[in-house]
Amino acid sequence: MYGKAFAPEYQGALTTLSVNSSLVDVLAAGTEQLRAAERSGSRGEAARSGLAVAEAHRRLGHVADAERAWRASYRAAREAEDLGAMAWALWSGGTLARQRGALALAWRLLGLAAELGERGGDIVVRGYSLAGMAETGRIQGDYAAVGALHEQLLAEARKRGEARHTVWALEGIAQMHRNNGAYDTAYAMFEEAAGIARRADDRRGHAWALRGLADILSARDGATERALELLSEAEATCRRMNLSSALAYNHKMRGNVLYRAGRYAQARDLYTQALDEFRTMDEPRGTALARLGLVKSLARLGRDRAKTAADLAELAGDLERIGLRHARRMVSRAQSELGIEAEPPREAVAAGVGVGGGKGSEAGR
């Protein structure tokens, strides 16, 4: 039913790149082709090779370089009057905005990309852009608004036999079920996604599916060691492909698994590692989630109660500003779990708290 996974964001002379190509290799090939296109004056090819450069930078966590690259790709596409290439550049920019936590901007850019894709007759970029809008709403916790869109996109991807997009949609819907407590449904969907990704050789999608399975095995069954095995398998893939963001989320999930098992010192170390990785990439959502895990672990290890309360209040305020409703509810649950009365969100906490947000509170796969 499904063919081999492909990467439609690698275009023009770069279509020979695999969905599983190392991002370092993608960046090198894209930069070389972009320079050649600029020398020859081919604006269309510059736009399409520039897209690969932008996406490689984004996935490697090079935020400023990714921002420059997608904007340059869009300008080149506009000069070439190529609506499809303009749409792809906006898709990249919208995805970067979501990763940085600028959710309103992400929604606007992705909406423009979907519109241009439809006008230009590129159904793939239209689908990817609508998927990006759905994911933006999902990470905000607005499941009622985007649940139907996820289902629509899953149906379209299944109909076209697009393995990579089917895997993405299954994982998004599974995550919503998991967050609503429907563990069995979520597990079945993550399992299907893992199977499709494996058969289609979509290693990135497979790594994300393994992460989802590990989460449920830990939360539902208390199967700590099996969950850690799956995360180790996924981590190996992330390292081979230089998937910086996925690797950081893997480490954060490993912290979750260890925390649930009562292994608080180990969880603290993993959350600290993930926090450093997210901050390096300027990824506020991951930063907030790693901070939350770290605060909880430190509290379990005997940290001062007042400092824990102050950290949670600051974190709640940061999440309110970003607009991450589900993550904000997680903070409320942490306050209840630790027996801490919720305080009004603070702009800052007293010096010496130690795990504050720092850079990026303004600012997601």
UniProtKB/TrEMBL annotation:
Designated name of the protein: Tetratricopeptide repeat protein
InterPro entries (alphabetical): TPR-like_helical_dom_sf (IPR011990), TPR_rpt (IPR019734)
Residues covered by region (Disordered): 337-365
Coiled coil: none
Highest taxon of the lineage: Bacteria
Compositional bias annotation for Gly residues: 353-365
